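Chapter summary example: a protein plus zinc ion.
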Amino acid sequence: MYSSSHAAIGTTLVAGGFIAGGTGGLIVGAAVAVVSHLFVDYLGEEPYGDLTTSAIWELIPMLIFAASALLSGYPMVFLVGWLAGNLMDIIDKKLYLAMFLKNVDPWYFFHKGKPKIKLDLATTKMYAFMSCIVYVTTAIIMKGYA
Ligand SMILES: [Zn+2]
């Protein structure tokens, strides 16, 4: 699944942990967020298509994520959520550099199985859109928590 969905699940878990138990809760939330990656990857995304379309559907959620993180008052909670939710992709995709480095070893540690549910393009885009709603909602909740 794309990073926007992993970020939404990861940030929700980390923020929930932080609200429930402070720094300790944040750590527990981050651990659960790392494991959540395996389950979110049961959903197989449909590629967005050409580079421009991909850039739009990757970049806009990323910008909304960054804005939500800043407006929440807890940007570190969002950052930890993004990192924890995406950690398995960061490791397996070699810090996302693999797409630029053609000769990188294709060996994957966390991505050995295939997705169980194949999404169509409209559903893949709907997940990106829903992720943005989750970012904003989490920011509002965190703002109220302050
Ligand atoms: Zn993955």
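Key point: Residues 40 and 106 are 21 Å apart (CA to CA).
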